[in-house]
Design goal:
Blueprint (H helix, E strand, L loop, with lengths): L13 H15 L4 H12 L14 H32 L3 H15 L1
């Protein structure tokens, strides 16, 4: 929870030390690994696990990287389309340019 992507054994955080003590106490009390894991998940939530399960409560945790990537790709695509449309608008033929200058000249009078 404090040090993401580190097990409680690898982490030097105070919370990890407290969790190690709690796990030892539960092991001495005779709890199995699954019982200890269930206890910790009930107490701290799925986010305490290194690999949280995919379920409605954790969909954003699993889907966020893909959503960020999709948003970035869409932003780049929209920016390129705008840039291309601006470049196309600037490429007027001589007749179109003359007509535009005539129209602009009339409006300024």
């Amino acid at each position: 929870m404090v040090c993401q992507n580190e097990s409680i054994d690898e982490s030097h955080a105070d919370l990890a030390r407290d969790l190690r003590v709690l796990v030892r106490e539960r092991l001495q009390a005779g709890d199995s690994d699954d019982q200890i894991r269930a206890f910790l998940v009930r107490r701290y939530g799925d986010f305490i696990l290194l690999k949280p399960p995919f379920k409605p409560e954790t969909w954003l945790l699993w889907g966020a990287p893909f959503l960020i990537l999709l948003t970035g790709c869409c932003t780049i695509l929209v920016a390129r389309r705008r840039q291309n449309s601006l470049l196309t608008a600037n490429n007027l033929s001589e007749a179109e340019r003359a007509k535009l200058e005539a129209m602009l000249g009339e409006d300024e009078s």
